[in-house]
Amino acid sequence: NTPIRYGIIGGIVMCISALLSYMFYNLLFGSFAIQTLYGLVLLALVIFIPVWGVITYKRQRGQISFADAFIAGMIIIGITLSFSSTISYVLPNFIDKDYPQQLYEKVKSTTSDSMEKFGAPEDQIEKALEGIKFEDFQPSLLHSLRTFGIGLGIGAVLCLIIAAFASRPEKPKPILNTES
After folding, report:
1. Distance CA 77, CA 158 (A)
2. Is residue 69 within 8 Å of 58, Cβ to Cβ?
3. pLDDT in tens, 1-31
4. CB-count exposure of residue 40 (10 Å: 0-12, 13-18, 19+)
5. Calpha distance 1→144 (Å, rounded)
6. Sign of the CA dihedral 86, 81, 101, 134?
7. Are 85 and 4 contacting, i.e. CB atoms less than 8 angstroms apart?
8. Are 46 and 13 in contact (CB under 8 A)?
């Protein structure tokens, strides 16, 4: 129950972040610094939510095994990714079909401008711009499923780390002698 609840919380957070990104893409993707900061905040949330969920799960159950901690973390990650993948697929394919083209052009422009400011040679800028593909901004169902699978793989590594720490027995707290 707790992992499902935290997975839903994570999913809602990811949906809100996707909607904020959609509504404010000119601001977010118009500045490399803001784009980087936004990405770091999302990364922190993606790590924090499963850690928080597994710790809460452990506190409710007392001691938990490595397997229980890992499974709880994977449930949280799986539900979070399900929400995130769904909104990332539905938004550009059904809700706003012009959004992928606008975002693609904005990211290319921001990348080019940032690289010019840092003094990158023209051939490096062209190479970087060639690496930005329109298909990445309007994902197919197969692309979304592949991204979901990659996310589960990365999430499994995160959950292994979380489980290693969460399954350790707590050290007994020393009893203070108040008699003197």
Report:
1. 9
2. yes
3. 999 999 999 999 999 999 999 999 888 877 7
4. exposed
5. 27
6. negative
7. no
8. no
